[in-house]
Amino acid sequence: MHTVSRHSAKNLVCSWLSEESAYNLPAYDIESSVTALVVSMKTSGVLAGVPFVDALIEHLGCTVEWHVKEGDLLPQGPTKVASITGATADLIHGELLIKNILSRASSIATFASRLKKLLSDFSWKGELVSPFTHTPGFALVEEYAIFVAGLPSSRNLSSVLLPLSHIEAAGGVKEAIAAIKSKAGKNTQVTVECNNLQGAKSAAEAGATCLRFEGITAKDLGNFASQLKSSHPSVLIEASGNFDETTLRQFTLPNVDSLTSRKLYNGYPVLDFTVNYETANELTKPSLKRPVGRVM
Q1: Could you tell me the domains of the chain?
Q2: N or C: which end of the chain has fewer CB atoms below 10 A?
Q3: Sequence-ordered list of residues with C-beta below 8 angstroms from that of 136, at least 6 positions apart, any chain
Q4: Cβ contacts of residue 230 below 8 Å, gap of 6+?
Q5: pTM of the model
Q6: Beta-carbon neighbour count of residue 52 at 10 Å?
Q7: Is the separation of the CB atoms in 110 and 150 below 8 Å?
Q8: What is the pLDDT of residues 132-147, one digit of tens each?
Q9: Which CA distances in Å does 239 have to 92, 125, 130, 244, 283?
Q10: Residue of 296, 293, 275 whose CA lies nearest to 69
Q11: Which ranges carry the Quinolinate phosphoribosyl transferase C-terminal domain (predicted)?
């Protein structure tokens, strides 16, 4: 079961709503009647983002019934995914956010699931992981969508990414890794960003856990990974780039442990959601219980 802290989801919702119009002008002349907002996914895709919509609906004082299970691949639509009941003015105030949350989270989950399936078809022993770079204010939603797709996160409390710019600022990779482990603990996993073989060797010798190559060719990646695994068999090799269905396969090399694509958070195909309003008594009962992804 995928879970998100209620406190974290609530804080995000409050910050998003603060950026919306404080006066809710679209609902200015609408009577405060009870209405149902029906949300549908227009195309085939994996539904994600439920905990954040739940937190938003709760904050608005409305109720929601989900008709499909989060994480399921929905058929070509439109497919009704949720019915939200509440005051019309409140629903109008949250309508755009509801669509944006579901669209972004579901698009990421769908694209990640597609790449994961592709890698499985290649019989590659490595794994696809989430990018380190997130969209400001939306990192938790992006990471959650990756979890829904069944991919591991590249971020955890015991790991640190060391970019090239930080290495230069610290005076070298050895000094940078030593500084990190002196503050975060000697068991901290350090991923070092590399752009050439010599830099990667220096990082491995300095105690790096993982070597991440950015934007190099598949030929260079295979050559570098082979040499590094020969001299440092326990070090992990990762490649990052703008991988998609057309370019992924050439990087699924024997000595490469993981891949990540920046397109997972910026560049994925966008899924559209539509909404329409009905009177509350027109709603039908949901076909499923509330899905996984509930806010704790």
Answers
A1: 6-114+269-279 (3.90.1170.20), 124-267 (3.20.20.70)
A2: N
A3: none
A4: none
A5: 0.84
A6: 28
A7: no
A8: 888 888 889 999 999 9
A9: 43, 14, 12, 13, 49
A10: 293
A11: 108-275
